[in-house]
Amino acid sequence: MSGSAAALATAVPLRTNGLTKRYGGLAVVAGIDLELHAGECFGLLGPNGAGKTTTLRLCLGLTDPDAGEIHVLGLPVPAQAREARMRIGVVPQSDTLDPDFTVYENLLVFGRYFGQDDALTERRIPELLEFAGLAGRAKAKIQTLSGGMKRRLALARALVNDPDLILLDEPTTGLDPQARHLIWDRLKRLTAEGKTLLLTTHFMDEAERLCHRLAVLDQGRLIAQGSPQELIARYIEPQVVEVYGDGVEDWQGRKGQQNSDRCEQTGETVFCYVHDADPLIATLADWPRLRYLHRPANLEDVFLKLTGRELRD
Q: Residues 119, 171, 196, CA angle at the centre, nearest 5°?
């Protein structure tokens, strides 16, 4: 790779142009343009079936696109996918740890997939275990680990080859809050060290905390892109009042709609989006059976406005 090409790969770890994938005539990825910056955490958000995992598979060269271009670390994919994957770390959505090996052996064997000398991997293992909060667990069997420990080991395994780009597919799904916060801390450490992360998640608070920028996908199309703060300012009113309790539908018809920029009801809760919440909250004094929560708008509000509140399977 020439000096200019290497500099470009460092500046733009991943770029897609017009990325398209169809199955049975349906475009599950429909002309996506993405460009990641070095050292950032970039999020891919979307409902189930939006095309997030397919996009990751396309970027790894595990699925061939029907149209468009992919460049990963300066290399064209899928033409040079194997070379690109040597410099990528992957935390898959499912558990792919080998149950027959210990924690130590899982890391050692994985290093061999990248052609690393065992001595090099062995030198890295203590540091990786400390990073994952698994120091002292090197000899443990996989079956003895908790779900949080397994996800942290999967993250450590993704770092065996000291990758420039790390792809994480819903890395904290199914974890308790303590385990999620520990993984968040580790991911922040990675970006602070200059690593580039591409993250898919269904947790909007996770995306808001971790992602420097993100893209929202729906039905294979990119419908919004920017920093969390930019998307909140662009698409949603600044304040939200959630109202619930007996008589909330009556209150919404009489008072909520008139004193809000926009109202939506989900179950027994009415979500009122406003620029000034005081007039709306004042109306609740005459409705003692109702309760409310007043909060600033967040990324989940943006996500639901853009993709809808209906359940996706």
A: 65
Q: Is the pLDDT of residue 308 over 90?
A: no
Q: Bridge-partner residues for 270, per DSSP?
A: 243, 265
Cβ–Cβ < 8 Å for 42, 197: yes
Tell me the C-alpha distance between 277 and 164, whole Å: 46
In this structure, what is the dihedral angle of CA atoms 146, 150, 152, 157, given to the nearest 10 degrees? 160
- Region for 78 from its dihedrals, namely left if φ exceeds 0, alpha if ψ lies in -120 to 50, beta otherwise: alpha
Which of the 8 DSSP states describes residue 1?
-
pTM for the whole structure:
0.91
pLDDT score, position 313: 59
Distance CA 202, CA 56 (A): 15
Domain architecture of the chain: domains with CATH: 3-225 (3.40.50.300), 237-296 (3.30.70)
